[in-house]
Design brief:
The chain is α+β, with helices and mostly antiparallel strands. Helices cover 44% and strands 20% of the residues. Strands 1-2-3-4-5 form a five-stranded antiparallel beta sheet, with helices on one face. A hairpin with a 4-residue loop joins strand 1 and strand 2. It is globular. It starts with a strand and ends with a helix.
Length: 167
């Protein structure tokens, strides 16, 4: 998505498994002028706690870039208590390659974790994903609010709920 006459670019990918009991992974990449920001957010949409070994993989990815600053957080959000501590939020100028690599590593680690993740009740898991997506749309968040302003409420609802979260 391009906004502000092409000055801001945003790419988003959502991995929301419904047959394996892993968290929801939301990857956002934002470029505004020369500043790059990478988010790799893991949200608790699980039916059971995940293994320490799996969480440790994501902790090690986050720790690898501990020298990079996190973007300023302006306010608390309704989903903060669902966000796992191993989630990644980093920003910088001249860090494009490094942030891209970490985003790719989060995606690859998540896909690898799917192979060993326990199966779960798909109906119950899907309900948790739907609840998260519905609440995200109604309560909002930075990206959802931006998409809603750009496209209007109905188009944003369709884009976010159907195409991003598959609900």
């Amino acid at each position: 998505m391009n906004a502000l006459f092409g000055l801001m670019k945003m790419e988003t990918a959502v991995l929301a498994p419904t047959e394996k009991d892993l968290p929801l992974l939301n990857l956002d990449r934002v470029r505004f002028l020369k500043k790059d920001t990478q988010f790799a957010e893991l949200y608790d949409t699980q039916l059971s706690p995940w293994s320490r070994e799996t969480a440790a993989v994501f902790e090690s990815l986050k720790d690898r870039d501990r020298d990079l600053p996190e973007p300023a957080k302006k306010t608390a959000h309704w989903y903060d208590n669902l966000l796992y501590p191993c989630s990644y939020r980093k920003a910088g100028i001249g860090m494009s390659d490094r942030l891209t690599e970490t985003g790719q590593d989060y995606a690859e680690a998540f896909i690898a974790a799917l192979a060993s993740a326990p199966s779960c009740n798909p109906t119950a898991k899907k309900e948790k994903v739907v609840q998260f997506a519905d609440t995200l749309f109604t309560q909002g968040g930075p990206a959802v609010d931006t998409v809603t302003k750009l496209f209007g409420k109905e188009t944003a609802r369709r884009l976010i709920l159907r195409y991003m979260y598959g609900t």
